[in-house]
Amino acid sequence: EDQVTQSPEALRLQEGESSSLNCSYTVSGLRGLFWYRQDPGKGPEFLFTLYSAGEEKEKERLKATLTKKESFLHITAPKPEDSATYLCAVQAPSNFGNEKLTFGTGTRLTIIP
Amino acid sequence: DAGVTQSPTHLIKTRGQQVTLRCSPISGHKSVSWYQQVLGQGPQFIFQYYEKEERGRGNFPDRFSARQFPNYSSELNVNALLLGDSALYLCASSLSNYGYTFGSGTRLTVV
Q: N or C: which end of chain B has fewer CB within 10 A?
């Protein structure tokens, strides 16, 4: 069974203080690893998809990296508007065409002005 | 271009009642998936439909059912509601199974 573990559960940073969020995964063949941002009461907003170990993607103050066992979401010089819950999900190949996402429980990030 | 739209946004039901949630995917997207997100947890997979056929079902009881229509919109039905069914129900659509766009969800409260 696919498993995703995110750490820490919650993280409070001062504005401008860089840090990283961790996503460890166990999957029977990785088709893709996804990062989403979720604001309270809203649906997840897509950030990145990573497909193979060594791959990196960047968007503004965010950079996602992938190894064979984990992914990191690096946040550089964060601003208060970066406060949200960050969700990691994995997708495994399926013989039945079922491409479900298996999510972690998320990291709740708070940026203090 | 409109994103994934879900209706209603909020719903309050009594235990034992039935509920129907609706989802319209992004235009051109043929795959629709449903997820349940309990407060403080990550979304849990319920169903996936592609071209009106069920492609997968998560670990949910038979009280949960869904269907997809010819225009690719979808409905999620839950019968005999329990207090534990209270959650944010999310719909996601995809063009190619590689990228999923989520709607804002339906907040279901069972009292």
A: N
The shortest C-alpha distance from A106 to chain B (Å) reads 6
- Closest CA relative to residue A71, chosen from A83, A55, A84, A60: A55
* Close Cβ partners of B79 (under 8 Å, ≥ 6 residues apart): B18, B63, B65
B1 — pLDDT class (breaks 50, 70, 90): low
Nearest to B101 among A46, A87, A103 (CB): A46
Q: Do B102 and A32 touch (CB under 8 A)?
A: no
- Does B68 have pLDDT greater than 80? yes
Residues counted in chain B: 111
